[in-house]
Amino acid sequence: MRHLMSPLDFSVGELNRLFDLANDMEKNRDKYAHICDGKKLATCFYEPSTRTRLSFEAAMMNLGGNVLGFSEASSSSASKGESVSDTIRVISCYADICAMRHPKEGAPMVAASRSLIPVINAGDGGHQHPTQTLTDLLTIRTLTGSLENFTIGLCGDLKFGRTVHSLIRALLRYKGIKFVFISPDELKIPDYIITELQEKEADFTEVTKLEDVIGNLDILYMTRVQRERFFNEEDYIRLKDFYVLTKEKLAMAKENMMVLHPLPRVNEISVEVDDDPRAAYFKQAQYGVYVRMALIATLLGFAPEVFDKED
Ligand code: NCD
Questions:
Q1: pLDDT band at 34 (very low <50, low <70, confident <90, very high)
Q2: Best residue for ligand 1 mutational test, from 163, 221, 226, 284 (most atoms within 8 Å of Cβ)
Q3: Which residues form the pocket of ligand 1, taking CB atoms under 6 Å from any ligand atom?
Q4: Which of 5, 10, 24, 163 is the most exposed place for a label (fewest CB within 10 A)?
Q5: What is the pLDDT of residues 231-276, one digit of tens each?
Q6: Phi, psi dihedral angles at 210 (to 5 degrees)
Q7: CA nearest ligand 1 atom 7, residue
Q8: What's the start-to-end Cα distance of the chain, in Å?
Q9: Looking at the whole model, is its pTM more than 0.90?
């Protein structure tokens, strides 16, 4: 039995085959419409979510399966003091696979260690968000044809943004990636990730102004300032509108630069940008469904080709 806690839990070869499967699922919906008939996905969300939870549920329904779960800690027995370990032992009796989001870093790992069914980390605090990373990688691979040789700018809250942390780690395994980290001083990439980048001799720079670098980027990955992880509201208010991608700023970018955002957007991308052909964030949300379909099918053992090779 395999779980998904970090994007690195899958080898590069396994990810490639997972993405092939997701692309095939997009093209041939009927072929996969019943592969999970009779199976149940539990979505255990101790933190708010729209896309992640609903895309997991849509993914399972697209495969013919059913879903059950809760969307906030207050409607689960966590509010009575039940531990994650006990909850997952019980969920193991009701469902075949579980997607879990939790505000505490490491909580889904604790669950995985006690679980009798595959557990997917659907976001743990400011730590990791592996299925968003799978979504990001599938989007880039499908729209550009490759996961190598590009310059990616990650912009916004690089300190608390778990999607950024997961994506950097995943991209470190591909060739020719240049990272440009764009953030205010207070929201810079955590030191443990900088150390990892240095150890892997990655090509990276840290800057404050988006305008200074936007012209060099092939991909711009915008993120929201993570209000819920701030210690005080004043800092949030001071930093929340530090970056706003407008039409004027986009005019300085390459004609084929891709704009990604894990969503939800607050103010950091002006709505006028949505009609620009470079805006790919709603397509990205759609790819989130296909990659979660492929992941569920794989972890439930219905796509043995994803895991069957040694690499
Ligand atoms: C992200 C998250 O939850 O970390 N959202 C998502 O799952 N697409 C990004 C965010 O909340 O800013």
A1: very high
A2: 163
A3: 51-52, 123, 129, 132, 162-163, 224, 262-264
A4: 24
A5: 889 989 999 989 999 999 999 999 999 999 999 999 999 999 999 9
A6: -65, -40
A7: 52
A8: 18
A9: yes
